[in-house]
């Protein structure tokens, strides 16, 4: 590798993966050393960019620092690097001015991280100030996204549904549109270039992962709509109510939106976890992307057997790939399940506790959770 800066960034991420898998102090020390060296090199590059273009290797290094923080299990710092990467891409005028391979790598990393961040964060994450598709034409099949890009974008639309809850017609239309897109999705929905040397077995695994994401998309849609229903007063009237002399739309109740979603939540959870159980999770890196499908399935089931599958599968991902945010997902699920089970017990004795939503736990913890 001709760039010392990029080499340090790659070594930082690699050493951190090793440290997470082995719990070795030496690997962790090396990761911190390479991370610090990368930051120092980026400061030098930034000092020069007042008179020079910010170079491709420095752009790639910023992207890898974002990945480093995700691998570390950070619940804050990854946001800084992702936002910095966006500003730097804008400063370069988008991807068109970059080396093609560098542009494709950064596009994949940014699209993946940005959309995954929107799924699990209600805090504001700026929309891209550039078009991710216009500069490089048909993208290569990406190592981060695989076949899931269209589903990730649908999940971002789902994350935005609470902004429509005051307009029940718009909300209803959006739910129906998202549902239709999930139903009709296939791994060939978006064109892409298959990189040379990609085996049929890899493509099959990427397709299977994407099918899990489609199941997770249905679960996530149910989850967000249930949360909207909890925050809106139940109104069974179809005629609305008069407020200050104007007709106010009735809120969208559970009975209103459930028929809009083709797949019941329990079936989507079952399909997702049934697929995952057949995967050799420790054998192929493509399966490392399954954190979100497992997490959202775990959040939305109270079945003990399902929870065991989720924890067992997340444990395999954590052990085999050394990605710290898997640990964060397990921590959050533990808190959520304990709270949900306590609420079930409270309702059983007539205390009438409201069921907690996983986003409430994220808010309470103050996390900027990302499940990339």
From TrEMBL:
<dbReference type="GO" id="GO:0045944">
    <property type="term" value="P:positive regulation of transcription by RNA polymerase II"/>
</dbReference>
<dbReference type="GO" id="GO:0003700">
    <property type="term" value="F:DNA-binding transcription factor activity"/>
</dbReference>
<keyword id="KW-0539">Nucleus</keyword>
<dbReference type="GO" id="GO:0000976">
    <property type="term" value="F:transcription cis-regulatory region binding"/>
</dbReference>
<dbReference type="Pfam" id="PF11951">
    <property type="entry name" value="Fungal_trans_2"/>
</dbReference>
<protein>
    <recommendedName>
        <fullName>C6 transcription factor</fullName>
    </recommendedName>
</protein>
<dbReference type="InterPro" id="IPR021858">
    <property type="entry name" value="Fun_TF"/>
</dbReference>
<dbReference type="GO" id="GO:0005634">
    <property type="term" value="C:nucleus"/>
</dbReference>
